Each structure stands twice: as structure tokens, then as C-alpha cells.
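Hey, sorry to bother you again with one of my protein questions. A protein chain has come my way and I'm curious about its shape. It would help a lot if you went through both lines with me. I owe you a coffee for this, so here goes:
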Amino acid sequence: MPYILWFDKAGKEALGLVGGKNASLGELMRADIPVPPGFSVTTEAYLEFVSGDLKERIERILSRIDPQEMASLEEKSQLIRKLIVETPFPKKVQEEIQSNYQALCQVFDTSEMPVAVSFQCHRRRPSRGKFCRPTRYLFMGSRSRRGP
């Protein structure tokens, strides 16, 4: 499965891979409604990101939550957020994002451009439940910044 899917390749059949908003962009393009070129980072990229050690660390934190104690929930939530923000992307995901970003820059004949990319909660398959990555890229290229 791909880590990136361009809007013009997305559509309702890619809903589980890119989410409703991005699938809708593909459907708009198919209907010849103008949509700027761009791409989606797929749920497969997210699953690759949270696999292995990160997943185990998150599960350990979650296992120590007292759901009756709001302070415990807040503390564990902050720990998980910190883990996610500080964990680098797997190299193959990072390379695919960077190469597609460069291709997008070429479309606009520029070396850097502002982009907005966000991971949101999506239901991929009923058996796998929901998953989220609440991070937004405010700018890519040499001035990349992740933030809540």
C-alpha cells in the first residue's frame, strides 16, 4: 500500500486510505472542478509510523491510565503526544513524503512552498477501530515545523 496518494488518483474508493476530505478532492477533480494539485499522506504511512516500539510505548502508557481520574488521563495524554511529536518518521515514509513534496514544488516551478497537511481520525476498517495523529505540517522544505 502507498504512503502517498495524489488527489487526482484519490476518490471514494480510497476513502479508507486517505479519509473523506481527501477522497472528496479526488472526486471533485474527476468532476472537472478545479482543485489545486496536491497529495495525501495515507493511513498506511500512519500505521507504519506507529508500529513497533512507538506502539508498545503508547500501549504501556495507556495500560496505566485510571479512567476515573481526569488528571491521570491528561498526564498520559501529554506523554503520548510528546512521544508522537518527538518520534521521527520511518525513513521510507519520510523519503516518500519528501520526494512527492519535491514533485509538487516542480508543478509550481518553485523550490519550496507552503503546504498544509493534517492527519485526522479516520475509521479504516471496523475491526481496526479509529486512529489519529493530530499533527499539522505548516511548511515543508528547509523550514519544516510540526505542531499541534
